[in-house]
Amino acid sequence: MYSGASEIAREVDAAFYWIGGICVALLIGITAVMVYFVIRYRRARSPQAAHIEGSLPLEIGWIVVPTILVLFMFFKGYEGFKLMRTVPEDAQVVEVVGQRWFWTFIYPEQGITSDRLYAPVGKPMKLEMTAPVDDVVHSLYLPAFRVKEDCVPGRKSYLWFQPEQEGRYHIFCAEYCGKDHSRMITELVVLSPEKYQAWLQRKVEDRNKPVVMAQAMDPESAEIKERDGAALFKTYCVSCHGAEGLGGLVENARNFTSLADWKRSPKITDIYRTLELGIEGTQMRSFSNLPPWDRFALAHHVAAFYKGSDRPQASPEEVEQLNKDFRLGEKQEPRRTIPIEQAKKAYVEDAGGG
After folding, report:
1. Which range is most confident: 32-46, 159-173, 265-279, 320-334?
2. What distance separates the 2 farthest-apart alpha carbons in the chain?
3. How far apart are CA 201 and CA 191, in angstroms?
4. Global pTM?
5. Where in the chain do CATH 1.10.760.10 domains reside?
6. Residue 12: what are its φ and ψ, rounded to 5°?
């Protein structure tokens, strides 16, 4: 068993070591006594069975001693459980959505999302988890931190941890959730506080970067190529539509190579609307959590699956309408955030010191 990456991990390991050690000691002790009695009182040495009366001290002993051991194991385990469920007041909240078959991590204070979980060294992180109401149960498991909690459709659950050193740690789904359960893997990236703040700043700037429609509609533009639509497709789409875009891996997953199979159309503007709004009544959900530039890169990659020369193209009017509908050319100013301690102080001052 590798060393734990947090205090919770060490508590869990200590409980396992104690309980496992006690069980091994009991196994060896009981087995040794059994072997002794088998040899000592075998028929060759004791042809006549002796009548043995009960022993009050022995009866008390094998009631009291196991009771003490069981209570010790209970309270040793409870120490770790209590630590797991007691979230520090200064913990940073990250919302987690588990769905077939990927994870989405939402940082509500900054209004950004990621397909990986990022955290700073030394900062408690509280994960508030759920799953879409029409999805299935998933379970977020961080083995290096010895924490695991279910993501239940339509319900909230939580766990917390505090990383102590920089590094990358696996995140698995520990609840069988269907066809691509084994591929529902991502990672926790633990950074220094300075690197973490720089990452947040980059994500905020990327999220609020205005869209230049001429570049967004051009699959060869530097902005679109930089986004790597193929990697986005592999993360979010391949489980349902397949690596070749043939669909059919889940109910109503479209075949992108067939013009007749499109719900809207293979125009970039229509694909973008699908990514923004989803398709009601299907498993095609909204990907509005992605930055607009990522959605355009993904739209271009999806559109490229249809090779026909008759693929419809978006008119200038449709492009302009998309721009207006989703205000893509406007820069969205990031929300100003302040530390929780400062917010509490301001609240008390506004309330008159009460």
Report:
1. 159-173
2. 105
3. 14
4. 0.74
5. 213-326
6. -65, -45
